[in-house]
Write a structure and sequence with these properties.
homodimer; alpha/beta; Rossmann fold; Pantoate--beta-alanine Ligase, Chain: A,domain 2; 2 domains; globular
């Protein structure tokens, strides 16, 4: 596996891969790989001839009070894991490479980015959309793979790709979970042992919601109340529990085939998110 | 020459051209071709193997009180002119093709787009940047050619391409003028014979500014006052007369090698713009 840190070198590598007739898949990440990232790499491998994984902790998507500085990093370990997974290139540019001067241009995603996670993280999704647009322009992938764990991000990037006619297919990959159900996240490393134990309540809340829907409940308010109770009982602070249309993120009052349940909650000082489909066609929530 | 109106067909044509090893130049236009557009097509031809000219009157860059509905259109004539000029494809999508639903995503250009023309046309440059990003994603050009007539637009698109790492070279082409010096513009067709006669004062103002600089004047205020006088004497209403850094559009107080003079003025109900370099290295303003 090659490690590339330079934009020109990355473009050249991709141009050569394309000339050789290969399809390129891109997996944009912020590094500190866990089993979720590795699943995205496997998915990318199944979709293309060449797999490029980008590793960039993007300052533009962090608010001034957020965890940019303490976000976990371990390039050496990430390099080894990606290499073992058959990734062709790990593209890990420095901040000064991606933002040599203050960027005047942004890709903004409008109202889709102001709700749910966007309500507490103003500008976050514009920062995500902007850096993903840059990565698309540098790599020129045929397909890009994102985790469903960041469901709002996935919907927004699908919308961005459609609105701006990006010549790339956006693929979402299901959430990968710990044995107790906690969605894999690099931020799980922030949790104390006690917080880590409590954090499993989030996926229990999702499971409770699916059980209610399986039992015939269709009222979003009743479902949200039940999920809030699971979170609160475990000592978590809920930020939002929302049922939205999975394609548009529009809030729903009644559960439909298109419903997605999204949750953000705090375990101590750590913000965690998770989500699931609510209807029987969705995949089963483990454990 | 092919006329293409469909995005998928345009992508296929470009993919085939690229597979054949050809470099593609794109000339984005709003149609109603004049000698200025034809010069851009010639320039594009000199830079690439294939020339695509897009023709799209972009609603996103027109304000609610602007001239979207009466903007001049003549596809048949444009097709003939582009064909005679050796253009390979005229890409003329319908509005519903480019904007099948309301676009949630915009490319915004920040402070660069709020000054000069942006002050009286809020959102205009965001609309331009957004549609040009879409065209770049559809055509995937190696190089794109824009007229220096829209100088602020050119600076903004250069900045957009750099900030977002678009894999495209932006080329600016000098203003093409009528025999009396008026910069070519599709909007010149709005002018009454009397307004048309008066409109030549804009290029006379530019020439006066260059004469002052050639004579040693470096104070922007003195130069702007002289240009305003030329416009007013001819019965034009000046919107702005500004001297800015040609790379950043930052206002200047003293003329430098990087100075550009930008003018917007009204002849009756028609808004006209023009610009020139101020230093001896710039090209001579005709006539």
């Amino acid at each position: 596996m090659e490690l590339i840190t330079d934009i020109t070198a990355m473009r050249s590598w991709c141009a050569a891969a394309r000339r050789a007739g290969g399809r390129i898949a891109l997996v944009p990440t912020m590094g500190y790989f866990h089993a979720g990232h590795l699943a995205l790499m496997d998915r990318a491998r199944s979709l293309a001839d060449r797999v490029v994984v980008s590793l960039f902790v993007n300052p533009l998507q962090f608010g001034p009070t957020e965890d940019l500085d303490r976000y976990p990093r371990d390039l050496e370990r990430d390099q080894r894991l990606a290499g073992e997974r058959g990734v062709d290139v790990l593209f890990a540019p420095a901040v000064e490479t991606m933002y040599p001067s203050e960027t005047a241009t942004r890709v903004v995603v409008g109202e889709l980015g102001t709700r749910l996670c966007g309500a507490s993280r103003p500008g976050h999704f514009d920062g995500v959309a902007t850096v993903v647009a840059k990565l698309f322009h540098i790599v020129g992938p045929d397909v890009a793979v994102f985790g469903e764990k960041d469901f709002q991000q996935l919907v927004i990037l699908r919308r961005m790709a459609a609105d701006l006619d990006f010549p790339v297919t956006i693929v979402g990959h299901p959430v990968v979970r710990e044995p107790d159900g906690l969605a894999m996240s690099s931020r799980n490393t922030y949790l104390s042992p006690e917080e880590r134990r409590r954090a499993a309540a989030i996926s229990r809340g999702l499971r409770r919601a699916r059980e209610l829907v399986a039992g015939g409940e269709r009222r979003v308010e009743a479902i949200a109340t039940a999920v809030e109770a699971v979170l609160t009982d475990a000592g978590l602070r809920s930020e939002y529990v929302a049922v939205v249309d999975s394609a548009t993120l529009a809030p729903q009052h009644k559960v439909t085939q298109r419903s997605r349940l999204l949750v953000a909650a705090w375990a101590g000082a750590t913000r965690l998110i998770d989500n699931c489909a609510l209807t029987p066609s969705g995949e089963v929530i483990a454990p």
